[in-house]
Amino acid sequence: MRLTMKLRRKLKASILSDFLQYALSAAIFIPPQDRHDNQVDVEMSETEVHSKRLVPELEIYCYLLVLIFLIDQKKYNEAKTCSSESIVRLKNMNSRTSDVLASKLYFYYSLSYELAGDLAEIRGNLLAFYRSATVRHNNLSQETLVNLLLRNYLHYNLYDRAEKNCSKAHQAEALTNGYFCRCLFYQGKIKIIQLEYTDAKDSFLQAAKKGPLTAVGFQIQCNKWAVIVHLLLGEIPERTLFTQKRMEKALRPYFELTNAIRVGDLELFRTVAEKFSSAFSQDKTSNLVIRLGHNVIRTGLRNISASYSLDDAENIVANAIRDGAIDATLDHDNGWLVSKANGDVYSTNEPQIAFDSRIAFCLNMHNEALRALRFPRNLRNKESVAR
């Protein structure tokens, strides 16, 4: 599988045809004029394939190669058909050695339908596959299907269903780092919609740190949502977050958004939100950007309250005082705002709370590191004992 991902860019119709003829010894038709073009049809004769009594893993791998090739050629309807046929063949297979291939096949099965815009059609099938994988104790398939179900629900903004699925799914020790990172990312998206900003921030930060450095797209998505959570919590992200290599262009809208909130300029905030509205819509963060409008007002009030008194917008100022955005009192008789002197923060519980949060994060990272040192189960020996 690792070699396949490396050679994916070099995969051509002629190479794929030769491999399928060699591996399957079946009737595979590729028009001669299309053997060197991107437009290609790959047809496998099922009768000949089954008559040869192929090794199940080899047959699934061939289906997987064809499916990857069709997706890369952007032939999504053909990819849907190929993935559906491969899933039908996969239902009759149940072996430990096919679990890795099955998990990959489930992923591209969902991806083909997502690219074709028909992701809702396979939700019931994914649930059925997950129940079957749970009964058969196929752990890799379980991990993949849990993430695919969460992605399916979140694609259509079904956050309640996603939260229920996440809480009721079988919680087992993660076998792959990719599954764990994706699960953290999806959980963070659920938490942020449920207004649990602190938990969401921890999920996004852990996903970004544990994610592979080569997965730049995943790192960008984690950082985008992490910036939004920081701003919703009233925090300003560090500038180094926006200057990371290969991420500056993608994070530019969020950098300008952060700058507008930092200075408390409501007009600048509206200009940035309108300028990058398409980018926010594509990232599905438009609703969260609207929430940040209140933070801009609070920041502006905090800046004004440090030097001036207010005799207008009494309701807004009272709400800001109640939420802790500014430290002041209202003089209703005289109609102004009286700012309180800045006290010693070390005389309060804020440093203790901050240290407690950091210690908890370090302990959690330490426990995850210890779990990562454990050797995986020897499934082959287990299977031989069972036999």
Automatic annotation (TrEMBL):
PCI domain: residues covered: 287-362
GO terms for cellular component: proteasome regulatory particle, lid subcomplex
InterPro entries: CSN3, PCI_dom, PSMD3_C, TPR_PSMD3_N
GO molecular function: enzyme regulator activity
Pfam families: PCI (PF01399), Rpn3_C (PF08375), TPR_PSMD3_N (PF25573)
N-terminal signal peptide: none
Keywords: Proteasome
GO biological-process terms attached to the record: regulation of protein catabolic process; ubiquitin-dependent protein catabolic process
PANTHER family found in the cross-reference section: 26S PROTEASOME NON-ATPASE REGULATORY SUBUNIT 3-RELATED (PTHR10758:SF10), 26S PROTEASOME NON-ATPASE REGULATORY SUBUNIT 3/COP9 SIGNALOSOME COMPLEX SUBUNIT 3 (PTHR10758)
Assigned protein family: Belongs to the proteasome subunit S3 family.
Protein name: PCI domain-containing protein
Organism: Anisodus acutangulus
